C-alpha cells in the first residue's frame, strides 16, 4: 500500500488556500492509502514568534484539520516536535544536500528578500521537509503547487543519500507530488498566492460575516471598472474560487453573466459566498463540537505521535546501520 505524508505549519489559521490546494485532498486520500499528516511546528520558528501563540496555534491547527475531515480512525495526525527523529535525520541530510540547490529555491529567495536578517533555518528549511517525508519513507506527498520545488529537492536528497549509503536497496523512495485541480489559490489581493504570512487569506473557520467582509472588497478583473463593462472570467480570482466551490452549472452561469455584464462583481461574489457556505457549514459545525472536546483533540495527537515515534525509530535504525552509527 502506498504511504502518504504531508505537513502544514501552525503559523496561523488554516485558510482556504491550504484547504483547496492540499487538505481537501488529504481527506479523500486518507481512505485510499496509509496516511500520515503532520503539524510541522519546527518549520514555524524560522521567523520571530511567541511561544504561547505557537502552543495555541498547534492545537487550533489540529482542530481545523479534524474539522476539515481528517479522521484519526483511518489516518495518523501528529505534531512534528513530538518526534525528535525529524531533526536528527535533517542533520544527516545536511551532509548530502548541495548548497547551490538550497540557494536557488524560489521560496528562499522570496522570503530572504523580505527579511532584514536571514537566519540559516530559512535556507535549510527544505532539508527538514525532506526529513519529514523520508522519515516515514512516504512515496506520495499531496501538496499545493508552491511546494513542488521543495519536493524535487527531497527527491534529490533521497537519491544522493541512497547513492552514498544504500546502493543495494534504495532505502528511501523518491516521493512524488499529488496535486489538486486547484493547485494554486491566489490571495484576495489578487497579487500573490494566498498565504498565512501575506495576510490575504480567508480562514476555513471564519464566520459568514467575516468571509463576506473580505470577499466584498476582494480584487476581481482589474479591467472591469464599471458594472456595465463586460468582464473576463479567466483573469478573475473570484471566478477561480467559483470553480473550486460552486457546482459546474453555477460556474458556467457565472462565466456568462460576467462576460456579458449581466451581473456586477458584487452579484457574483454573493453567489460565491453562498457556495462557500454549503461547503463550510459542516466544517464549522465539526469545529464547534471539537472545541468542547479538547481531550479528544489532544488524544488524537498523542496516539499519532506514539505511532510515528515507532515508525521513525525503525527508519533511523536503518539509517544508522547504513551510515556506521550502529
Ligand atoms: P502557508 O503558505 O499558508 O504558510 P503552508 O506552507 O503551511 O501554508 O502549506 C500547507 C499546505 O497548503 C502545502 O501543501 C501548501 O502547498 C498548501 N498551500 C498553501 N498555500 C496555498 C495556496 N495559496 N494555494 C494552494 N495550496 C496552498
Question: Topology of this structure?
Answer:
Layout: E1 3-8, H1 16-29, E2 34-39, H2 51-68, E3 76-79, H3 85-94, H4 99-103, H5 106-114, H6 120-134, E4 140-142, H7 148-165, E5 176-178, H8 208-215, H9 237-245, H10 248-259, H11 265-291, H12 294-323
Parallel strand pairs: 1-2, 2-3, 4-5
Helix pairs in contact: 2-11, 3-6, 6-7, 8-11, 9-11
The structure holds adenosine-5'-diphosphate (ADP).
Adenosine-5'-diphosphate (ADP) binds at residues 8-9, 11, 17-18, 21-22, 143-144, 146-147, 183-185, 193-197.
Explain this structure.
- The protein has helices at about 15-30, 50-70, 85-95, 100-105, 105-115, 120-135, 150-165, 210-215, 235-245, 250-260, 265-290, 295-325, and strands spanning about 5-10, 35-40, 75-80, 140, 175-180.
- The chain has about 325 residues and is mainly alpha-helical.
- The chain folds into two domains: about 5-185 and about 295-325, HUPs (Rossmann fold, 3-Layer(aba) Sandwich); about 205-285, Tyrosyl-Transfer RNA Synthetase.
- It has a three-stranded parallel beta sheet with strand order 1-2-3.
- Strand 4 (about 140), helix 7 and strand 5 form a beta-alpha-beta unit.
- Helix 2 packs across helix 11, helix 6 (about 120-135) packs across helix 7 and helix 9 crosses helix 11.
- It is globular.
- The model has no long low-confidence stretch (mean pLDDT about 95).
- The structure holds adenosine-5'-diphosphate.
- Adenosine-5'-diphosphate binds near residues 21, 143, 193 and 197.
